[in-house]
Amino acid sequence: MWSIVRKRSLLTALITAVACSLFIFVFITWLQFQANRDYEQQQKMQTEIFLASYYEIYGNWENAIDKLQTAKLFQNSDIQIWSSTNQPLWPQKTVDHGSDEIGNRNVEESRRHVLILNGQVIGTFTGTFERESIPVPYLMIFSFTIGLLLFIIIYSVILKKERTHRQSLKKIITQLAFFEPPKHEKRQDSYSDMEQLIETKVNKIAERLYLLETIRKSMVADIAHELRTPLTVMRAKLDNSLRNQIPLELPQASLLQDEIYRMSKLLGDLQQLALAESGHLILHKNWFSLRSMLEELTSLLAIDSKESGIAVRLQSEEAFRVYADENRLRQVFVNIVGNALRFARSMVSISVSFESSSCIITVTDDGVGIEEEEIPYLFERFYRGTVNRRKEGNGSLTGLGLGLPIANELIEAHHGTIDVTSRWQEGTTFQIKFPIYYEAT
């Protein structure tokens, strides 16, 4: 089915072509009328000069008419000549016409042209002086042909512009897709649908930019706070030791080491995230048992979870090996499972399954859940969720919101994906999927 824009284009081209055809028809008809009028005036002037010259040469109309008859001039024309006394002179009366042919051809004096010689009227004449013109049917066919060609040309130009415009809109839609989370959308064919889609995407991008700008401003404050606190402690301890010339005691040195570790971890996370996002993160892949790694990780996390009464369960179909960076994947699962333990009420479930050439790890908790409007921003840098969600968590949240973005980038580096589903006050499920074996070529 044609779109409304294409119908409008067809109608525009048709109206333009019809208007041009009518203009061409009227213009050519006017040109023929002007040409016929000029031709008629010229012929009348030449005929007037010719008859006056004949009259002057032969002295009277009788001799002039005889010469015209002998020369067989005006035999095939409808020219009629009268004397100054209104006597018919040409054409002459013939025996074959049983009636006065001249009398039957009398023309009103008002339509006659006067013959003047040396300032005296010597007679009058009349006749039809028309040139051969293009017949109206042929003129209409010619105008229709020109109009059809114009219609084809105009419609082709409009279609080309429409195609170019449509490609531009699709290109814009494709480029806008990079600025928001991908989702399945029905194909847009009409201009109105594409323009509405672009408007929707631009509005979403504006909202996201506003959120990112807010996060950026708070990020600077958070990083400054995280760095200022350990630096202040270290400076105070060192200043006191140097001023009083007192060696640092072991507990104080241990405290300084903890602060240095915090700063190193923060800077390491930022550097790791930057490398992953730029595609320069180096992966050291090898074959290892995913189930064994998860069992070891679960046993370590279960020690801390027992204090809060949260059970950690691992379900795996079989023990199979994957080709990946074990340390990077361990970091991913520490972040995901650690978040689940932080918000769970009583249980965290980890399941491992095999599908085609990929493995799927699902981490589910029965915690407070995540609000729907928060899900698209979980993997943004420095996004720490709403105040309500942070209050609902077990313990205080001291992180800067880098854990999930790093986990997402590490999984994408393994050509995998992380999907999140959640219901508020019911729980959250993270599903991690990546290929068992993938070797970059």
From TrEMBL:
Magnesium as UniProt keyword: no
UniProt cross-references to Pfam families, sorted A to Z: HATPase_c (PF02518), HisKA (PF00512)
Residue ranges annotated for the Histidine kinase domain, each copy included: 222-438
EC number: 2.7.13.3
Recorded catalytic activity of this chain's protein: ATP + protein L-histidine = ADP + protein N-phospho-L-histidine
PANTHER family to which the protein is assigned, alphabetical: PHOSPHATE REGULON SENSOR PROTEIN PHOR
The protein, known as: histidine kinase
Organism: Bacillus chungangensis
